[in-house]
Amino acid sequence: QVQLVESGGGLVHAGGSLRLSCAASEHTFSPYRMGWFRQAPGAEREFVASIAWSGSSTNYADFAKGRFTISRDNAKNTIYLQMNSLRPEDTAVYYCAAKRTMIGQYAYWGQGTQVTVSS
Fold it and tell me: Would you state the pLDDT for residue 114?
């Protein structure tokens, strides 16, 4: 079973930046798409951004456009989420996820990494 391991979370002041990483445990893992989701206290998990494993297709939630950038390094089986101009409302646990097919659900999830933005 493939494991996804996130890192890079932490505490940052409003306006600051963080870069999250998510590494897949198997070098042969070749998903269709990978993404980032987040869940704030008392809220439902929400989509942040996604990226195709091949090609250049990316998608962003409206709140992430212009501030967050998703990227990948296929050789390292890793995706990244560069987050700039962070706001207190970005405080959440950020999860990495992957799916193997276009129509399938995100079936692989990481354990999450906490991002806290202080005002």
Answer: 98
